[in-house]
Amino acid sequence: MKVLVISMFLLGNSPVFAEDVNQRIAFLEQEVQSLKAQQKLENVDQSTQQNTKSVNVFSDTNIKFYGIVRMDGAVDFKDTTAAPFVSNQTPAVDRSPAGNRSAFTLTATRLGMDMSKKVNTTDIKAKIEMDFWDGLEGNGKLRIRHAYVDFNNWLLGQTSSNMGNFETNTESVDYTLFMGYAWTRNPQIRYNFDLAPAHNLKVAAEYVDTRASELPALTAKYVYKQENLTAVAQGFVNEKRATLNVSGSEKDIDKWAWGMGFGLKYKFSPVNSIQGHFYHVEGDQKFVSYTQQTAGTVNGYSSGGDFSINDSQNDLDQNKVNTYVLGYSHQLSDQWRTNFAASLFDYDDTTNFAKNNPTTNKQVSDLAANVFYTPVKTVDVGLEYHHGKREQFDGKVFDVSRLNFVTTYKF
């Protein structure tokens, strides 16, 4: 035993063994330094990733996607004679010979995205919404409905005009709403005044793309809303323009168009409401739905529902119209609801426009009733009947009898 201990002592103090131990210690120190260096690199990489994330434009932006899958259909029991006559929301079909016709479309399907973000102390909101309704009756091409940014009470982009009246709207099956309601969307710069909890005022410069001068339309809208009562007052002015070719040179004729609207909605019980709206418009067919018309060429220029050229070719003969719509809504149960609406467009037949455009509308009326069924929270099925009548300045009268239906899924 003593020999073994003495031998191990001598071996441990030998130069060979000491050198081996020193090598192992040096190797371990090298490994430790390598691990430290690797840890530093990992820390730097994590810090870089965090910094990169902090400047990512979407990192602190709230994004909400939404949409409506929608199928519309209609059956005409009498032939519809012209588009402004209780405008059809389905694709055009052969109107000759007159009689029953039907069509279906999914072009009112809608996709949208709401975005919000806080930059310093400013809340920034934005919206992009689109559907496939490009053209008078929808042809399946992608169309921008809304695209704007909203901050510090300023809105820049395209959205509903101040002449719209969704606040007093009666729910319809027809995608284009009842006559007397307006849904025009224009590129605009708008400022919002929150005057008090129940009072709101919006003013805007809106771009109107056809039959107008280079100046934007000026619009304003006041909304009063408190508990069961909503009131709306609105108005616009817009310089209209016709460009004629006279003796080989172009000639611009300008004239101001204007209009105003008033509406009320009163909810007199939890399941019943009544709502109505009135417009008076002179020289315009852009801001109020169903006022657009095509009337051929008069005195060298295409007439519309807004104006035509006078006989001396130096002024615009403006069309004038009063529109009325009255609606009633009733919630039958959690799953069933119904709506009724009566609409009237009454054009001034004493104007030079009426005398020079005999085939345009003198009076258009519509009576409609619908019922909606909601089998589950996000699905609606609707059925709606329209009976309409259109009378021209020349005395000709046309009728429509139409059944509309719709199914929607909202997400």
Automatic annotation (TrEMBL):
Q: Which SUPFAM superfamilies match?
A: Porins
Question: Keywords in UniProt for this one?
Answer: Signal
Q: From what superkingdom does this record's organism come? A: Bacteria
Which InterPro entries does this one have? DcaP
Secretion signal, residue range per the UniProt entry: 1-18
Protein name, as recorded? Porin
Q: Which organism is it from?
A: Acinetobacter celticus
